[in-house]
Amino acid sequence: MSSFKIHNVDSAPEGSKEILANYKKRNGMIPNLFGVLAEAPDLLEAYVSLHQWFQSSSLNAEELTVVWQTINVEHNCTYCVPAHTGVAKMMKVDPALTEALRNQEPMPTDKLQVLQNTTLAVVRKRGELSKDEVEAFYAAGYGQRQLLEIILGLSQKVISNYVNHIAETPIDRAFEKFAWEKK
Asked: Which end of the chain is more exposed for a tag (fewer CB within 10 A), N or C?
């Protein structure tokens, strides 16, 4: 059991109250991750900003999901995999893609497979990709912008995945039905 406090609007430090209140107003709830992040207002603000920036990147809903879930699964984040399963559903991503990501199965298209392979290489090699890996990414139809956007998505996921490991953040009730364990 985690000893980390899961803040609400009333218990959060002053710098986090407005972010939590605005999120609750828009979405009807405050995710447990946000409640944990609220202890460090700058970290909560950074996470929210990274999330917004990544969602407004050039990647479409399927590609965002591939990057998020590839990183979540690689990092073994039992909070984020269910949460992003729910997010993917809200974004109307094909459930077959979501299940393939959760189960570490091949992607439905060659282009998405290259995106997943490149994302894994960025994570596992800490950005030290080979020339062949970069060329394969470009040959699939992606460019420098999308390669950099993987790093943007990874920045967001490092915050959430690492915090969830340390805090042992419990899954939100809304995502419990998507509970996950790495094979």
From this structure: N
What is the CATH class of 59-178?
mainly alpha
* Contact call for residues 153 and 71 (beta carbons, < 8 A): yes
For residue 103, CA distances in Å to 1, 18, 96 come to 26, 37, 10
Write the secondary structure of the chain as one string of H (helix), E (strand) and C (coil).
Answer: CCCCCCCCCCCCCHHHHHHHHHHHHHHCCCCHHHHHHCCCHHHHHHHHHHHHHHHCCCCCHHHHHHHHHHHHHHCCCCCHHHHHHHHHHHCCCCHHHHHHHHCCCCCCCHHHHHHHHHHHHHHHCCCCCCHHHHHHHHHCCCCHHHHHHHHHHHHHHHHHHHHHHHHCCCCCHHHHHHCCCCC
Q: Kindly tell me the burial class for residue 152, based on how many C-beta atoms sit within 10 Å of its own C-beta (0-12, 13-18, 19 or more).
A: middle
Domain boundaries of the chain, sorted by first residue: 14-54, 59-178
Mean pLDDT computed over 42-71: 98
Calpha distance 170→78 (Å, rounded)? 9
Q: Are 78 and 47 in contact (CB under 8 A)?
A: no
Is pLDDT at 1 greater than 60 in this prediction? no
Kindly indicate the confidence band of residue 3, based on its pLDDT and cuts at 50, 70 and 90. Answer: confident
More confident of the two residues 33 and 2: 33
